[in-house]
Structure formats: C-alpha cells, structure tokens
Amino acid sequence: MSENVSENETEKTYEKHLIFSAGDRRYALPSRIISEVAALEKVFPLPLLPGYVRGIINRYSIPYALIDLNFLLLNISSGSGKIIVLKEEVDKIALLIDDVIDIADLSPEDLMKTAQEESSTTDLIHAFFEWKDSPVFCLDTSELLNRIKRDYEQN
User: Fold this and answer.
1) 54-62 own/partner pairs: CB under 8 Å, 24+ apart
2) Alpha-carbon distance 130 to 52, whole Å?
3) Are 64 and 56 in contact (CB under 8 A)?
4) Residues 25-43: what's their mean pLDDT?
5) CB contact at 8 A, 127 and 108
6) In which region does residue 90 sit, left (phi positive, over 0), alpha (psi from -120 to 50) or beta (all else)?
7) Which of 106, 133, 140, 148 is least surrounded by CB atoms within 10 angstroms?
C-alpha cells in the first residue's frame, strides 16, 4: 500500500454511479440498479397514464414502462432517443434520457444532502455532487417508484 494514502482513504467505500443528462441537467443513478443503456426503439402508447409515462417498450420480450424523466422532473417533454433500463429486481421501468456523460466512483462522503422543500421534484432527488464543475443530482429510486405508483393510482 502506498505511504501517501491516508488510513481514512482506505476505509472509504465507493459505489459506481452512472452520470447522464436529461434536458439541461445532469443526474446520477447507482450502477447496481441499471440493467442497460440502449437506443430508444418503438414505444407503444397507453391511455390514462400520467403525462410523463410515454408508454411501454419491449426489451427482450419484457414490457417496461417508459418514463420521460425530463417531463417528470421539469414538466418539459424530451425528444431524446436513449434509455436507461432498470434491473427487473427494482421494477420494470426505463428512463428516457438525453445522453450518458460518465461513470463516477462515489463514497457517501462525496454526496451533499439536499434540503427537502415543498416541491414535487425535490423528493425525487436525495443528494448532489459536483462533477467537472457542474452539479449532478442523485435520483432517489425508491421515491421515484413511489411517485410513479402514486400518480398511476390517482389517474
């Protein structure tokens, strides 16, 4: 082990996060919940769903709900053509994104907690960090899934 590495550095635990863009913002998700990143193919629209649910996509004969992340967070439709498919253990959801930016190894100490304000989107973001002089917002997947289920039940 190098003498320049402090004892605290060796004790830190790191987790890989995928950094991606949706609209003008950058977001991150832990890579352990991501199945794949792919090009968007055919979308099968469904009626009576929240506006941010674009419809269903087919991934290897499994249907996934396609969520327009930019519309969900900022109420602006995305015209992008890439998706992040979450692992089936999480839920059968794909997120419409603009582009993949990078992969970051982050420790819990790297994340700054956000203040929870009275907003429908701040509960979906639990922390942020700086990456190459830009803020990156960490999505709270459990809150995201709860929000989608709650909105679906209300429709």
Assistant:
1) 54/96, 57/83, 57/94, 59/85, 59/94, 62/88, 62/92
2) 27
3) yes
4) 95
5) no
6) alpha
7) 133
Tokens of 103: 């992969």
For 47, residues 6+ apart whose C-beta sits below 8 A from its C-beta are none
Residue 118 has pLDDT above 90, yes or no: no
Measured CA angle at 144 (ends 31, 134), to 5 deg? 60
* CB atoms inside a 10 Å sphere around CB 149: 11
| Count of positions (residues) in the chain | 155
Number of Cβ within a 10 Å radius of residue 17 = 25
Band of pLDDT at residue 117, cut at 50, 70 and 90: very low
pLDDT tens profile 65-90: 999 999 999 888 887 889 999 998 88
Q: Which residue has the tokens 């304000």?
A: 117
Measured CA to CA in angstroms, residue 148 lies from 1, 42, 71 at distances of 47, 22, 12
Q: Are 148 and 49 in contact (CB under 8 A)?
A: no
Poorest-pLDDT segment among 2-11, 18-27, 81-90: 2-11
